[in-house]
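Interim report, section 4.2 (structural modelling).
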Amino acid sequence: MDAQIKVAIQNEDFDVAREIESLTRGRGDVGALVTFTGLCRDEAGTLEALELEHYPGMAEDEILRVAQQAAARWPLLGATAIHRYGKVLPGENIVLVIATSPHRRAAFEAAEYIMDYLKTRAPFWKKEHRRDGSVGEWVEAKDADDSAAERWEQA
Amino acid sequence: MDAQIKVAIQNEDFDVAREIESLTRGRGDVGALVTFTGLCRDEAGTLEALELEHYPGMAEDEILRVAQQAAARWPLLGATAIHRYGKVLPGENIVLVIATSPHRRAAFEAAEYIMDYLKTRAPFWKKEHRRDGSVGEWVEAKDADDSAAERWEQA
Amino acid sequence: MSALKLSYFAWVRERIGRPGETLTPPDDVKNIGELIEWLSRRGEEYAYAFENAKVIRAAIDRQHVKHDAPIAGAREIAFFPPMTGG
Amino acid sequence: MSALKLSYFAWVRERIGRPGETLTPPDDVKNIGELIEWLSRRGEEYAYAFENAKVIRAAIDRQHVKHDAPIAGAREIAFFPPMTGG
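Predicted structure of the assembly:
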């Protein structure tokens, strides 16, 4: 199955409806479409914004590799991954992953796989700007994210 | 966590973007949003349409029960499930499930859980209308769907 | 027992030839399985609909039940094939 | 060895005080771990950035590598903390 793969790293917001459309329009083979949207939380009102730094070039490369691995592992018809950089406000979108397949299980698993590996492999870093005017710490990586990715290696 | 739950059984198509909006607008606590869209496949061009019959009243009740069970099991902020009935053409939407949570794993698992149980518990039946003019068979239930739902009971 | 509203869906409905009806089963029909047996004796169309009784699903007052569920107190009982939504 | 383009990200960049630079390490610096040690000796800002060397991630020509990866032939080497995207 030849999957339609799109990866984008961009400052501006994405349009989920348009991305869904571009994976489904004019075709009758998509039975299941799963989207994941990651949003910026306000941390109980203490967060002013997240600043997302990335490694241009490598970010695209890594996410593309992850999407291609997903397409090799599951019968995907399409995979889209869009990650924003720069300042993101609470309630705004950070990342979008879409997987399409004839079958629902494949679409669910592939979308979750792409997100798990994107978190541990794509070179992005978040810094917190606090409501009180202070520039907070760099967000620390979570062990849970590593183990989320590792479970795909046992499976 | 009090989840915002919406269940709808309708003939008309749904608008994924609008349903996403209604679970995220004006709030900063949603960190993860997963959508599942089930679409009508054309079965290699042989399918004219699917006809979806349902049991009014019970269909809403069962899907609501499933969504509430998901909200009791995972820390959900919202859950939406919309299922169409009547004639659906290849490429058109059949079902939409959305789960929102502070955390991605919960949103993924809850959306998949709702879909798995919706398939085995919600009283809907699909009949195939073929391109050659014949009214095909009622779609047969798959054992795989039962086992997909059962795995949540072992976990 | 009192009158029961019966509803049929999908190929159960097609085989019986109607979407539902109101019937009053005799008092010795105590559960879903016995109701299916009693209906099957009512005519060819019922016998055809219920020929493979073990695949038939049932709901009492819009809740899934097994074939050993008692029907006492039920207002509406529905019969249908395994579901294929989603 | 020849000149290497070095790139720094997130708090590695902040601690070193620049986004990158071009340096020519001595010939006995063979792998990422040795490059980190050599950089750490260049000044306080480097020592601070690499004080907990085992958490530092590295990429050679935009591919993740471990600290024992040889740097021969590398054009661009990047150092950064564990990633927190998504």
